[in-house]
Specification:
about 200 residues; mainly beta; Immunoglobulin-like; seven-stranded antiparallel beta sheet; four-stranded antiparallel beta sheet; about 5% helix; rod-shaped; disordered N terminus
C-alpha cells in the first residue's frame, strides 16, 4: 500500500491501493519459462504465477538455434502454441509450444512474451535459455549370425550327347537312305531309286 498526500483545503491522507505486480521491475518475476527435451520433441511451457496470465493477444515468438540439432521449425509463433483458457478474454493460465527435433546437442531459445493481470499487461518481455536435447536412442542392430561358408563341392558336369549326323538330303547317298528305310522322309522332288 502506498500513501500519498492530497489537499482540498486540508491535508488529508489518501490511501491508494496499488498492486505490487504493476511495476515494470516485477514483471520478470511473474512467470516461469521452462524448456524440456523428450525423445524427438522439444517442449516449452510459459506458466504465469498466481494473479498473472499469458497475454494471448500479444504476438508471442520463440526463436531456436542449434548447429547440431535438426529443428522442424526455427521460429515458433503463438499460432503453433496451445493455451489453457483462463476465463478472461485475451488471457490464458498457461501456454505450451512443441517443436520436432532430431540429433544431439544444445538448443538456444530466445523468447518474446507478454504477461497480464486483470487490469493491465506488461511491455514485451524478452529472455532466453538453453536446453540439452538428446534424440531418441536408436535400436541396436540385431547380432550378426555366423553362417558357415558353403561346403566346397566339385562342379557337376554333364556329358553332352552327340546327336547322330543328319542323313544326306540330296545326291547319291540320299537315294540309298530312302531305299533302306531311313526314318526321315525325302524332300519333295527327290527321285526314288530302286526296283
Amino acid at each position: 500500500m502506498k500513501l500519498r498526500t492530497c489537499s482540498l483545503g486540508l491535508v488529508v491522507l489518501c490511501a491508494t491501493l496499488s498492486a505490487p505486480h504493476a511495476h515494470a521491475e516485477d514483471w520478470g518475476a511473474a512467470y516461469t519459462f521452462e524448456a524440456t527435451s523428450d525423445g524427438d520433441t522439444l517442449r516449452f511451457v510459459l506458466t504465469p504465477k498466481p494473479g498473472f496470465y499469458v497475454n494471448t493477444a500479444y504476438p508471442t515468438k520463440l526463436t531456436l538455434e542449434s548447429p547440431h540439432v535438426a529443428l522442424a521449425s526455427k521460429t515458433v509463433t503463438k499460432r503453433q502454441g496451445s493455451f489453457e483458457p483462463a476465463g478472461h478474454p485475451g488471457k490464458a493460465k498457461k501456454a505450451s509450444f512443441r517443436v520436432g527435433a532430431k540429433g544431439d546437442g544444445l538448443v538456444k531459445v530466445r523468447y518474446k512474451i507478454s504477461i497480464c493481470t486483470l487490469t493491465g499487461c506488461s511491455p514485451p518481455l524478452k529472455g532466453g535459455l538453453s536446453v540439452k536435447h538428446t534424440g531418441p536412442v536408436p535400436p541396436e542392430p540385431p547380432p550378426k549370425r555366423r553362417t558357415k561358408p558353403p561346403a566346397r563341392s566339385k562342379p557337376v558336369t554333364t556329358a553332352r550327347r552327340r546327336s547322330p549326323p543328319a542323313p544326306p538330303q540330296s545326291g547319291p547317298d540320299a537315294a540309298r537312305t530312302l531305299e533302306y528305310g531311313c526314318d526321315q522322309p525325302a524332300r519333295p522332288g527327290t527321285p526314288r531309286v530302286g526296283p
